Amino acid sequence: MADDRKKDHIDLAFEANSFRQSRDSRFEYDPLHGIHPTHQDIMPIEFGNCKMKFPIWISSMTGGTDKAKDININLAKACNEFGLAMGLGSCRKLIENPNLLPDFDVKKHMGQQDLYCNIGIAQLEQYINDHKLYVIRELIDRLHADGLIIHINPMQEWMQKEGDRFLSPAIDTIKATIEKIHCPIIVKEVGQGMGLRSLKALFQLPLLAIEFGAFGGTNFAKLETLRNPENFTDDQLALQYIGHDAEEMLQWCNEIFDSSSVDSRFRLIISGGIKTVLDGYYYISKSKIPAVYGQASNFLKYAQLNYESLQQYLITHTQTLMVASQFLRVK
Ligand SMILES: Cc1cc2nc3c(=O)[nH]c(=O)nc-3n(C[C@H](O)[C@H](O)[C@H](O)COP(=O)(O)O)c2cc1C
């Protein structure tokens, strides 16, 4: 074994030279004061009704498609095993077709961990206008959910051929929902993030959390253009590149936090382009507000294979996070 290792070291030494590779300069590396983590180590944070073992959020994804049920069950089981929390993908299809309940009904796999159902702002506006907001209350009850995520997606709707149109500004629809639905509410974007004016308006509301859905990762405005690329002019395509990345949004949230009072239970979910553990660790460390980081597509990659793949991914992911917490500090 030792001989093999020595041989590997000689063979790989030239490849392992980091001379030409870029250094991750976001962190101060402190090799002197940390220890290696064990499998028992956790990084707890309270979120909504639950205690998370790690500040890792599974961002809203799928429902109402072929594989949705298995994917959602795998994600829910992972929340239970690793002490995480998650948002469901849009539950609009379930409201329209109660037979789809098994795709979304995963709270029973989650132990004590939190689950949030999800609906688009355009549907909420419609329910409010039709005096049918009670369907959201029923949805939360049927799924035994801990609250509601509202996704705000004007660019996606605009780019979508069959997309909905907002007749009222989203902020008015959110306020009307908060007044009538008494449950924890999270507001998110779906790939463009949000600018300072929108963030300031959200900080005024009694929300449980803001999820960034920032620019830099899965981008649903872009996704809509990819469905029918020939239908778009360059003028329209330019709209998919607007928005704010997690770095910019976090800086604004920190500034707003400095100049206003924020409820101690309020959280940020920093998502959108969190590609590696170090991205997530960097942002939660920089946040002045208690924060978790969220991923969607990275989890989907493994959750759609089988539970064991997702489990293996999360073992490595959480251990890497713990190593980072021992030896790295954001500058
Ligand atoms: C397959 C897939 C489906 C998604 N569906 C929804 C959805 O139904 N509702 C929603 O709010 N966000 C949805 N999202 C968006 C993500 O929750 C969000 O953009 C988040 O920022 C994380 O994206 P990323 O880690 O892939 O960059 C979906 C993302 C993916 C990859």
Report the helical percentage.
40-55%
Number of strands: 12
The rough form would be described as globular
CATH superfamily: Aldolase class I
Low-confidence spans = none
Instruction: Output mean pLDDT.
Output: 94
CATH topology: TIM Barrel
Associated small molecules: flavin mononucleotide
β-sheet strand percentage: 5-15%
Radius of gyration, whole Å: 21 Å
Number of folding domains? 1
Number of helices: 15
Distance between the termini: 39 Å
SSE sequence, one letter per element: HEEEEHEHHEHHEHHEHEHHHEHEHHE
Description:
The protein has 331 residues and is of the alpha/beta class. The protein has a single domain, classed as Aldolase class I (TIM Barrel), CATH 3.20.20.70. Helices cover 43% and strands 15% of the residues. It is built from 15 helices and twelve strands. The protein has helices at 2-12, 68-82, 92-96, 101-104, 121-129, 134-142, 154-159, 170-180, 196-203, 220-227, 234-237, 246-259, 277-286, 297-303, 307-327; strands at 27-29, 45-47, 50-52, 56-58, 85-90, 115-120, 147-151, 185-188, 209-211, 267-271, 291-295, 328-330. It has an eight-stranded parallel barrel, surrounded by five helices. Helix 5 (121-129) crosses helix 8 (170-180), helix 9 (196-203) crosses helix 12 (246-259) and helix 14 packs across helix 15. The protein starts with a helix and ends with a strand. The model has no long low-confidence stretch (mean pLDDT 94). It binds flavin mononucleotide. The site of flavin mononucleotide (FMN) has 24 residues, from strand 5, strand 11 and helix 14.
